Structures are given as C-alpha cells and as structure tokens.
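Researcher: Quick one. two chains, 312 residues in total.
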Amino acid sequence: MAVTLSPVTNVTISLVDRDLNRSTIGFHVNAGVALGFIQDAITDTMIPAIEGISDAVVTGYTISSIADDPAPALAAETSDVERKGVFSFGAANGSSYVIGVPSIKNTVVIDETNKIDKANAAVIAFVQMVLDPSILDLAHPVTYLGSDITSLGKAEKHHRSSRRG
Amino acid sequence: MMGFTFRDRDGNSAKATFYCVWASSITEVWPAAYAIGDQLSALSDGVLYKIELSYRYTVDEPLAAADTSTNERKVLMLITNDDDEINGIMIPSPGDIFETTGSYAGIRVDLANEDVVVFADMLLAIDLRTDDNRQLGTVLAAGGLAL
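Model:
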C-alpha cells in the first residue's frame, strides 16, 4: 500500500431546488484543520453565505479526506476485483453487516468450494480486527447505524460487478 | 464511512466500505484506515490505490426551495489564489445577485450586492484552499451566469 494523504480536506455541500434536483458545491480546507472546526465553519458561516446567493436550499454536506496512489503498481495477473470475498457479520443490534473484499486471493478459498478458509492466518487477522473493538479503538468498524459488529456468519467467494477505471 | 478502492490487472476497480462511529476525528481514523487497508491487502491480490474517509451530514427537515430555484442554472465565481491564479466556484441556482443596469445586466454578478459581499467575506473568514493546497486569495474577482 503506497497511498499518500492529500494535503486538503474536501467539503462538498449539497443543495436541492424546487423540483428536487440536486447539485453540489466543492471547497477545500487544509488537511490539518480539525473536524469540529470544519463543521462549525460549514454550519455557521458557509451555509448562510451560500444560501444568501442561491435560492436553492442546503440539504446536507460531506467532509472527506483522501489518500491515493496516482500511479499504482500493476496488479497480479490473477487479480479480478469482481471476485469478492464476502464476509457476513452479525451486529449487536441484531442486524447484519456485509463486507466485500475485492479480488479475494484464491489461496484463502478452500479448493473445490466457494468457502473462505476461516482458519487461514490472514482471514483470522482480518476477522479479529473487525470483531475486536480494542484493536482499532474509537475507529473500529461498526454497522452503518453505528452498532458494534459481534460475530462472523458466512464467508464465501462471490462474483459481483465492478466499474471500469 | 471508509472506502477502500482496489484495482485489478485489467484496470477494473471496486470498493470495500466500512463505517466507524461518527465522533471519531479525522486524525483518529487515519491510522485505523491504514490498518484496515493493510488487512484487506493481505486478503486481496488487487492493488489498493485509494482510501477515502467521508463524514456525511444531512439536514433533517430542509425548507422548501424558492419557486424560482433551479439547479441547472449556475453562476461561476472567479477567485484568485495566493499564486495569482484564477479559480472557479460554481454556485447552483443563483438568487437575485446580478447587475441590474448596463450591458451586463442580469448576467454579471454585482460585486457590491450585500449577499455577494457576505459570500466573499466567508471566503476570507475560513482558510479555504484550492485542491493543490494553494490559499484562496482575498479577491472575488468576478462572477457571471454560467452557460
């Protein structure tokens, strides 16, 4: 992994017009600026200023930070991002949570099945990282509703569509 | 939301998505994101080339937009940066902010308009940057209806 953190944090503000068409405005701030400061700047200063010159209304905003590799190495000949390792987890609130790992290695799939080998060392490390909140502390994975992930159900290889580029 | 985008030999890409609690700060999340990226890379023979952290906020009950609003009509604001380059910001559905007299009436932003002044002041009040991290300058150079 040779990604480099962007020097800026992106702010994207979404607006909707009378006919519910959506559009966005993009800004950038220095990557070192704290999240709370950005939130306050957006709600207290940026949104009022934008709504002053636009007659659309703001419906939300996104603050994002990107690390990327503009010239990534060539992937292995065996790679195929449509071959996914699909891990189905259970969550504390009873819901389920699915993570698809693109281009799952065939070496972690049990031969003559589509099942991922839960005894494989890399699989064990990955599952433990998801299930044990102490490993990643505050930023440990949760469901999209914020519920802790508590158990692993199925782990299988599936083929799912990707996008080009 | 944490997005991890992989690329395969044929140039196709796909993303794995994780969530963490919203209160986590950007600084706290990046080491975790790199750790997750390492674990995903150990399971994949694709190449991880992009990680994106996003914090999403929505207005619970937004007001109805004005009858006159249409996001397909935009105004282009031209702003200098600290290298005297011109940068553009597109504002959808501009309100009543255009000059009212002269040959540019209705198509050029009135830089003396009260709301435009507030917008320009906002650009100064916050340390806004260009995407290559140049500081936006102090001059709202011009603005006009984008065609």
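Chain A has a mean pLDDT of 93.
Researcher: Thanks, that's what I needed.
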